Amino acid sequence: MRNVVVLVALLSACITTSLKAQSLLTNLQFINNNNQLALNYSSIKSAGNYTSINNTSEAKTPAEDIIEPIERLSPLQIKYAMMLDVELESLNNSILYLYINEWFGTKYRMGGTTKKGIDCSAFTGNLLSSVYSFCMPRTAREQYKICENINKDELMAGDLVFFNTRGGVSHVGVYLTNNRFVHSSSSQGVVISNLDDSYYSKKFIGGGRVNQ
Q1: Which residues are known to be catalytic?
Q2: What is the three-class DSSP state of 76?
């Protein structure tokens, strides 16, 4: 019961704030298991039943006003909203983030196409095929050629982002939102990075939109 009261107090204190993922970090309990985050709903639901347990009123408590929309969100949305620093409700393409979650952390392997190792263009090609049903060429350079060139400020989720890492078009990722993109990095494997990071901002060639 003490934990319930503490949780209600924390949630009530945040009622005037936006549902940004970072502000929820101190109010939610997560279980981290090999990059899989699960929301611990037990204590939240207990807090949500606080009014009915005490039978004081049928009106919703401030905590319930936050809890109800949270319960409609998946742990996956919360996980990636935190990583991308965006509103929880903005991540409405569940297929995209399920795909990313499935491959997240897969190591990089030149020429690789499987969970044992995958390179950047194989990853983007597989993602666009699985999520958007786009048929893509195999290499980053070939993918660049078939895309409509777009500026950085025009990027939308599902667009490609191209980089010159070792001469010409030599690296590619898939844009998500808020300047973040997912890609198979040679140093980190499948990861989400920021276009504004000094390394990627210097190497950035441009965006590409697939029109199929």
Answers
A1: 120, 171, 183
A2: helix
Quickly list DSSP for 116-168: TEE-HHHHHHHHHHHHH-----SSHHHHHHHSEEE-GGG--TT-EEEE-SSSS
Query: What is the amino acid identity at position 196?
Result: D
Distance between CA atoms of 17 and 45, rounded to whole angstroms?
21
Please indicate, yes or no, whether residues 59 and 103 belong to a single structural domain of this protein: no
In the block, tokens 């078009």 appear at 169
Q: What is the pTM of this model?
A: 0.69
Among residues 70, 90, 110, the one where a domain terminates is: 90
pLDDT of residue 52 exceeding 60, the answer is no
Whole-number CA gyration radius for the chain: 21
